[in-house]
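Subject: Phosphatidate cytidylyltransferase

B.,
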Amino acid sequence: MSTKESLAENAGQDAVATLNKRTGRNMPQAVATGALLVVIILACILVRIDAFIYLIVIFMTLGLWELRVDFATAGLHIPVVELWVCSAATMLASFYAPDHVAVMTAGVLITALVGALAATRNHRLGGRLLKAVNAKLSGKDAQTMADASYGTAEGDSRSSSLANVGVTLLTVVYITLLACLITLPTTFGGHPAAHAFMVIFLPALSDIGGLLFGSLFGKHKISPRISPGKSLEGLAGSMLCCLVGALVIFAATYPMADWGRIWWVALLMGIMVGATGTLGDLSASLIKRDLGIKDMGHLLKGHGGVLDRVDSILMSAPFITLVLLTTGL
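Prediction pasted inline below.
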């Protein structure tokens, strides 16, 4: 290898290392994982919308397991099997049933009731869960542990039934309900693929815009204690990317004759999702900070866990659904 080639390679490695430091993640891995996810999601949406629904069910199932492990590190218990069954049944029933909203509402309430009752039972850590918890605990650094609200003080090792019921109900709202609201927009309006694009890819653009603008220009922190990397400049980048994405999706979906009536919806959608996506990131960061963990999981290389990837999608889903419903789109 020549001296010039060696210098170029070292410069490239230094640039990647600098980018990784600024963003707080392994960017080559993150880009590769993100590209693979985009291909899978696009294939599901474009081939058959039912495949997209089942894909969300799979992601929801993985997310519930991640929360099961995360809460267990703090001595908290959620009945994951009951939540798996009830949540999957709720999502599928609300998609295929004629009255989508009513079935979704009933399913979420039943899931909450079954989960709350199951959370009061005596429980113990199984072998696989114990291994996952030990791996998660061994990865905690001293500062993260010091900042944690749970699992670090004496007496926190055994949680009360009330605490277990509380985190179970939180899980039903955070996973079951919000996941149903990801799929609900595909059931109305006559544009299931476009609605799926809005729910999935607009929050993803929010993440990308926030990451790029925050790493390049971020100076004014939104909440240094909850998420030191989030900045007002990143928020502006999130809104800008979402706005462009919303305009592109609307342009590809609705005829130009309708733009005089709906142009403001695209603008609202872009600005709104930029804000709600950032709120989703901050909410997930708050949960992780309180539990004393860095990532929700480790399944997605460069991103952390499934919930680390979909936190902005989950938080944006009810707002996107509300806008689409109220505007008749």
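The first strand starts at residue 221 and ends at 223.

T.
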